[in-house]
Amino acid sequence: MNRAQNAPQAAKSIPNLGLKQRNTFGFDANAELAYEITASEQIPGVISDIAAQKLAWRVLGGGSNVILPAKLPGATLLMNIAGQEIIASDASATLLAVGGGVNWHELVAWTLENDLPGLENLALIPGTVGAAPIQNIGAYGVEIGDYIDRIEAFDTKDHAFVTLAKEACHFAYRDSYFKQNPQRFIVTKVVFRIPKSWNARIHYADLAKQFAKNSNPSAEEIFLAVCKIRTYKLPDPKVIGNAGSFFQNPIVPNEQYETLLQSHADLVSYPDEPGKRKLAAGWLIDQCGFKGQRMGLVGVYENQALVLVNHGGGSAQDILGLAKCIQDKVRAEFGVSLQIEPNIF
After folding, report:
1. Do 150 and 178 touch, CB atoms closer than 8 A?
2. Which of 30, 135, 163, 270 is most buried by its number of CB atoms within 10 A?
3. Which one of the listed residues 32, 58, 174, 193 is annotated catalytic?
4. C-alpha–C-alpha distance, residues 201 and 138, integer Å
């Protein structure tokens, strides 16, 4: 069979597509024009088509880290590239290639089923594999950047496919080269490097409490514990709309941390890079009295102040209004600025 016969069909364009089921806040939103991307080879044609029409555009994965307006003008690329496979293995590590549209949590479960431990601390984080490195998702002392070997993407600036080694991705706390260059790269595949040597990482308070009587849990036990903790702290988007953690944990100089500690002895924080401390944004918000509070159709989740929720019928404008109230109060009380984590489209 020749190459032309193997080529995937061109991406389907869908006018005025409803996206309520494609964003975990459950906001009513419509894409003026949507393209369903099921293979990387479809992307050059779609980008050329968009450029010819001079349309604004964006990529949407699982919609778990976005705030969508009622109308998304221009083109929305729906990332649906599937598939995962082991592509290499040696004495030290296994290389795993995964399509950008694969569900992140399902991938974590798959790695454990296939005896590839390492990602278990990142269980139950919503979203797709392609979006995960952009934000450098992390939880309980682990970041996705720790396990990435390379990333394949389409560079819309040079109109060519590129492969970026881990070092070129510039991973940092909730940051990456992709995030620093918005609208340039469309992540199509992530290649993970899973080391064959494995150690349990349970030093974060919630996990340490879970394993107070078991200092050497298995990866599967950690996976289940993380799912249990997150299920308690974070609401199911199918039940109540949310995007998980809404604010980044702020990082402050040690001097500012020491000053805050004098007036807030129970301040929750974690070590960061030398000379800095990471403050718990949820704790700051809770101290300002927002946990469980409601503002019209939106509010702050009762079990975790870091999570903003849509009680039904809320909009991007509503959630951003609530977010500003929280930011203003935290800044006034602690002198700390909170950065919104989800992407605002």
Report:
1. no
2. 135
3. 174
4. 13
Query: What are the extents of the domains in the chain?
Result: 3-79, 84-195, 241-344
Task: Output the CA angle 284-174-73, nearest 5 degrees.
Answer: 100
Domains 84-195 and 241-344 share a fold: no
Catalytic residue among 176, 245, 269, 315: 245
Domain 84-195's class?
alpha beta
Q: Active-site residue 341, yes or no? A: yes
Q: Does this model's pTM top 0.70?
A: yes
Count the helix, strand and coil residues of the chain and give each as a percent rounded to the nearest 5: 30, 30, 40
* pLDDT tens per residue, range 39-75: 999 999 999 999 999 999 999 999 999 999 999 999 9
What is the tens place of the pLDDT at every residue in 6-34? 667 888 889 999 999 999 999 999 999 99
Dihedral, CA atoms, 220, 223, 227, 230, nearest 10 degrees?
160
CATH number of 3-79: 3.30.43.10
Architecture of domain 241-344: Alpha-Beta Complex (3.90)
Are the C-beta atoms of residues 192 and 148 closer than 8 Å to each other? yes
Active-site residue (options: 120, 143, 152, 341): 341
Is residue 245 flagged as an active site residue?
Answer: yes
